UniProtKB/TrEMBL annotation:
Protein name (Swiss-Prot/TrEMBL): Quinone oxidoreductase putative
InterPro entries, per the entry: ADH-like_C, ADH-like_N, ER, GroES-like_sf, NAD(P)-bd_dom_sf, Quinone_OxRdtase_PIG3
Keywords: NADP, Oxidoreductase
Keyword Oxidoreductase annotated: yes
Taxonomic path: Eukaryota, Fungi, Dikarya, Ascomycota, Pezizomycotina
Residue ranges occupied by any Enoyl reductase (ER) domain in the UniProt entry: 11-331
Molecular function via GO: NADPH binding; oxidoreductase activity, acting on NAD(P)H
CDD domains: p53_inducible_oxidoreductase (cd05276)
NCBIfam families for the chain: quinone_pig3
Keyword Oxidoreductase: yes
Superkingdom to which the source organism belongs: Eukaryota
Length: 336
């Protein structure tokens, strides 16, 4: 098969190329072989391309990038159930290997493609919505009637988290984004307040004003260092902050632990790719229960920013690196 490779093992976006002669994956055990029609881009792909991924990659990850995809079932392993059949349209999550024509993944990480969902849209769903469900529900434990602050609201995870919180009964949803257009997108997805951080407006001040000084019950943070102190100011008593990423840096200067003690803030951190298949299967089941029906009913959506043929994967990476995208960047894989 063909797959996206990186010349010399690491490099910038221009080092990406379509490599031929890659051995086809084999669906052993409960694995399902899927011919990929589209895959979604994530920032972890850039870090993997540059050989600076901050967590140890599992053996299942392999050298090929990509963790979310859509496609058609071609073959099943001997231990698979009857949940999927050859020819079924599916989408799912993987530890790696989605930048390719074929992938073999555990059936626990696959889902049936709804009839009204295109391959392009479905390829941008698993990583973002699974991460959002994990942050908002499994780790963040958001309860109906509670308020939430979601950073990087126009990112794939941010957009998903806004909608997961909305469906979950959040009373107020605050978010941050980098332009007025991105803020409007966040509001269209269910955010009550969207703060353009480039405008000079302080999200902590907005939270304090709109909650009458109480603060929010849950903070979902993908930014890290630059927002940490203002997150503490935005947090309510007995609130929770879930750290999903640290895009601005991971080292916080002049941090006083008293900020946590004074408000009894629960500081939690979570990752997804390093979790085992059983845990990711639990997230899949939660997604199918809480979110997939809303996607099928077109009440919840994934915003596709731009679609590229996979022969232009370098340009797709450059767009993601530029941070101009509002939503998912998708690549279409040629069928043969």
């Amino acid at each position: 098969m063909k797959a996206v490779g990186v010349r010399n093992g690491k490099g910038n976006a221009d080092a990406l190329f379509i490599e031929d002669g890659i051995p086809d994956p084999v669906p052993v055990g409960n694995r399902v072989l899927v011919r990929i029609r589209a895959f979604g881009l994530n920032r972890m792909d850039i870090m993997q391309r540059e050989d600076r991924y901050p967590y140890p990659l599992l053996p299942e990850s392999g050298k090929i990038m990509g963790v979310e995809f859509s496609g058609i079932v071609e073959e099943k392993g001997p231990e698979c159930s009857d949940d999927f059949k050859v020819g079924d349209k599916v989408f799912g999550l993987a530890y790696g290997g989605a930048y390719a024509q074929k992938i073999a993944v555990s059936e626990k990480m696959l889902m049936h493609l709804p009839a009204n969902l295109a391959f392009e849209e479905a390829a941008g769903v698993p990583e973002t919505f699974f991460t959002a469900i994990q942050a908002v529900h499994l780790v963040g434990n958001l309860q109906p009637g509670q308020s939430v602050l979601i950073h990087a609201g126009a990112s794939g995870v941010g957009q998903s988290a806004i909608q997961v919180a909305k469906v979950g009964g959040a009373s107020q949803i605050f978010t941050t984004a980098g332009s007025d257009e991105k803020c409007q997108l966040c509001r269209s997805l269910g955010a009550d307040f969207a703060v353009n951080y480039r405008s000079g407006e302080d999200f902590a001040a907005v939270v304090q004003r709109e909650t009458h000084g109480r603060g929010v019950d849950l903070i979902v943070d993908l930014v890290g260092r630059d927002y940490f102190h203002r997150n503490m100011a935005s947090a309510a008593m007995d609130s929770r902050m879930v750290l999903v990423a640290a895009l601005s840096g991971s080292k916080v200067d002049d941090f006083d632990l008293r900020a946590l003690l004074n408000k009894r803030i629960w500081l939690l951190a979570t990752t997804l790719r390093t979790r085992d298949a059983d845990y990711q299967g639990q997230l899949r089941d939660l997604f199918c229960e809480k979110i997939l029906p809303h996607i099928t009913a077109q009440e919840v959506r994934t915003t596709v920013d731009k679609v590229y043929p996979w022969t232009e994967v370098a340009d797709a990476h450059k767009r993601l690196e530029s941070n101009v995208n509002a939503g998912k960047i998708i690549c279409i894989v040629e069928e043969r």
